[in-house]
Amino acid sequence: MLLTEIFGYISALIIGISLGLIGGGGSILAVPVLAYLFAVNEKVATAYSLFVVGASALVGGFKQHKKGFVDWRTAFVFGVPSVIGVSVVRYYVVPALPDVLFTFNDFEFTRRMGMFGLFAVLMIPAAFSMLKEKDSSTNLTRKVKYNYPLILIEGLFVGVITGFIGAGGGFLIIPALVILANVEMKVAVGTSLIIIALKSLMGFFLGDAFNMEIDWIFLSIFAGLSFVGIFIGSYLSSFINGEKLKKGFGYFIFVMAIFMFYMEFFIGQ
User: Fold this and answer.
1) CA proximity to 45, closest of 124, 103, 121, 111
2) φ and ψ at 108, to 5 degrees?
3) For the chain, which residues score pLDDT lower than 70?
4) Cα–Cα separations (whole angstroms), residue 19 to 2, 59, 249
5) Cβ contacts of 51 within 8 Å, gap of 6 or more
6) pTM of the predicted model over 0.85
7) Taking each helix axis from N to C terminus, what angle separates 242-262 and 111-131, rounded to the nearest 10 degrees?
8) Per-domain residue ranges for the chain?
9) What is the reported pLDDT for 204?
10) H or E segment at 35?
11) At what angle do helices 148-165 and 170-180 cross, to 10 degrees?
């Protein structure tokens, strides 16, 4: 086994630990870990990330459900268009993209650049979302009111983005639930995990599972290590201040975004 692969499996464990400690964000590292430590291409990296992200979000979502912080009706109202968006992108769009999207003089803009470049750009608002102060509101009596046309559009948009980058997009979903459905912040966080689980897993199984050969042994080991990490992180959360760690992780995501952009647009050329 290569040294980079050993670091990759350790990173899978760290992804889970971060999820258990800070409640989210760690799964955004799945794509760079798969791409740079296991050297898989952009299609495989984003596909496997969908599985890991979805499975991890499902674990976290049910933990939030037990606390009463999941609005299941809202999850399905927002989740259905998201599932449609990600499934269509993974089944039809991504396989149809050419290796080179366009050329400009001697510069070739590849599919990998497009997918990983978009991923790096969207890591920045994701990092900002982790640096924001936690909402301490505990009012759960706000009346949910749906803006169905905007929810449909937002759900499709988030699904399409997820399909291209292989990440959950919680930083897009949570504000949408608060603004478009008047959901209280804690419920929006819990509900977003269920939405992420639905669209990520359905996108993987309805899209990628039909278009590529899945290395189930590798994927099971990677996801399994992440799950072990979640339980370790949940245990450690009793002793470690998760909010302080969350801010540090937010800065780390900034660094990773710059690293990915540099690797794809400078080293990759």
Assistant:
1) 111
2) -105, 120
3) 1, 23-27, 133-143, 242, 268-269
4) 26, 10, 11
5) 200, 201, 204, 219, 223
6) yes
7) 160
8) 3-267
9) 95
10) none
11) 180
